[in-house]
């Protein structure tokens, strides 16, 4: 197969779906983007198919990263997409719309894969990807290979429990890292604090920026402007992620932590340094080799990683 | 090399050092055992060398499992051996006493390796070993290969934080699983509860059994006889291990959890079932394939696993 044949990488997020045509050298040659439909899986699949077709060139395969739990081609749960409540055999159902091999992965797994083939983690042996967004996602490279576990569900660092009996998480359990550090949870806490009489500029910034939600941009601006409540909530988020990452380092003895997602792009190495500092006290052994960096591909990490999955499938098919 | 050539496997525990001569089919052909010296590393190394020599046949290699953090042949910390406070290059120093290739691993890593080559985990792709003893140790098989991380330090499930700000652990941090479920920590809590006026048969059983400590046997008997305080402490230990194992399952998407250590041998599948039940509420996805079993090699897991490390070194040398 010619290495110039293009693969479509699809990054499904809570707000947008981004698609890119990616060559074998991981360059993105064409892009398309749409709002993520809120009407459920059929609308999402239709939009993916339209975006891929809008790119003109027919790809040899499609790779899709989705913000949920995936199991061998099926999407089990997608907590952060509206009206997507059932299990969906995405590979089959997208295959009826686009007749090429289709690969599926979790968005954070796929984002880290992008960083590992072409970004901040190239050639590194043991890597944790920590993806900060609506939820907290994770991905792993172990012994120099992507690791996705027995069913493809590995990487859920957001649902490691750091405070047993702690805050209620959007997954229904208590004390998960995501309950303190996921944007959806943080918005819930911010809303409750405002209801209780605290003041914050977060919601005013949201309206000024004409965002429907407390996005990374809204958080970054509130933190930048010294909003006290945003600062407190963000401190707790970082502290909690430090505990979770420290626990993972004790379990897996890693070389590198790559932090991705919108906030990583906006805050850069400041964010990586803060998580490194929050992690250090929890590490059983000082590990001077362990590095913390932010994603270098930014928004493209998901597209490039998803295309890598698609290409691997096309090559092995 | 003939497969009949024997390798010595050495399992260094807080109480005893056990040595066995192991053939390529993982059978143990000769054994020796001594109390673990309390005078520090030189005494421990002398005892290992004497035990190996006492077996008669000269092994082609020696593998050693030690209850501490190991890093490429060096022992970094050994919190549960008396008067061992410094870093020791065990491979070099034991090599001056026994002139064959010497391999070193963490005791729980090595115990799981034994189970994986010849016990409860043969052929399983993604496995967590949970070793309950003076501390809480762990080992990992990932994608069908032993996983020890970038420096050989992986597996420290006992030092995953499950209750941030919780009980003080013997490692100096707070809220680690070991702070609730390691025997050394449990003894500390039991002692404090007795000082505060609670009653328990734990210490009377210890004296009756002529043990110097609250061993697995003492705990198993107290639980069996319905001692209320032992039951409460053990319930908390199981609950905490359930949180830690649930977090690891969410992170690594495993097939099997093997539980080892003295208590596993004494309680059998009851212990595995209790940990499974305690883990289930924390799992992000129900995983009907995930199994929980106790070690089938028992005390021999460490010896067989250590010998496997030694044999791998001899074969690759």
Please bin the fraction of helical residues of chain A. 25-40%
Structural class of chain A: alpha/beta
Number of strands of chain A: 12
Biggest sheet overview of chain A: 5 strands, mixed
Question: Could you please describe the fold and organization of this structure?
Answer:
2 copies of one chain form a homodimer. The first copy, chain A, is an alpha/beta fold. Chain A folds into 2 domains: 7-112 and 299-316, Nucleotidyltransferase, domain 5 (2-Layer Sandwich); 123-294, Nucleotidyltransferase, domain 5 (2-Layer Sandwich). The first copy, chain A, is built from 11 helices and 12 strands. The longest helix of chain A is centred in the last third of the chain and has 25 residues, at 228-252. In chain A, strands 3-2-1-4-7 form a 5-stranded mixed sheet. In chain A, helix 3 (107-118) packs across helix 11 (300-316), helix 6 (202-208) packs across helix 7 and helix 8 packs across helix 10 (269-279). The model of chain A has no long low-confidence stretch (mean pLDDT 93). Helices cover 39% and strands 20% of the residues of chain A. Chains A and B meet through strand 9 and helix 8 of A and strand 9 and helix 8 of B.
């Amino acid at each position: 197969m010619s290495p110039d044949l293009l693969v479509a990488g699809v990054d499904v997020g809570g707000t947008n779906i981004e698609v890119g045509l990616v060559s074998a050298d991981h360059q993105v040659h064409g892009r398309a983007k749409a709002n993520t439909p809120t009407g459920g899986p059929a609308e999402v699949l239709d939009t993916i198919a339209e975006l891929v077709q809008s790119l003109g060139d027919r790809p040899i395969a499609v790779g899709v990263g989705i913000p949920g739990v995936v199991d061998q081609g099926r999407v089990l749960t997608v907590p952060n997409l509206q009206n997507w409540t059932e299990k969906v055999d995405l590979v089959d159902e997208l295959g009826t719309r686009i007749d090429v091999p289709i690969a599926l992965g979790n968005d954070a797994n796929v984002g880290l894969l992008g960083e590992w083939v072409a970004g901040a983690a190239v050639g590194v042996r043991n890597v944790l990807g920590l993806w900060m967004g609506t939820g907290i996602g994770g991905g792993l490279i172990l012994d120099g290979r992507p690791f996705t576990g027995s069913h493809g569900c590995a990487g859920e660092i957001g649902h490691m429990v750091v405070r047993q009996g702690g805050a209620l998480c959007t997954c229904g359990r208590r004390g998960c890292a995501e309950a303190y550090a996921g944007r959806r949870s943080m918005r819930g806490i911010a809303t409750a604090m405002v209801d209780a009489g605290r003041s914050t500029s977060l919601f005013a910034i949201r309206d000024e920026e004409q965002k429907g939600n407390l996005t990374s941009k809204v958080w970054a601006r509130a933190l930048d402007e010294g909003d006290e409540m945003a600062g407190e909530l963000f401190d707790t988020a970082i502290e909690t992620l430090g505990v979770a990452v420290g626990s993972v380092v004790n379990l897996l003895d890693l070389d590198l932590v790559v932090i991705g997602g919108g906030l990583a792009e906006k805050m850069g190495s400041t964010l990586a340094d803060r998580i490194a500092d929050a992690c250090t006290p929890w590490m059983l052994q000082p590990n001077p080799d362990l590095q913390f960096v932010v994603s270098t591909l930014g928004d493209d990490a998901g597209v490039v990683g998803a295309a890598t999955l698609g290409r691997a499938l096309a090559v092995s098919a």
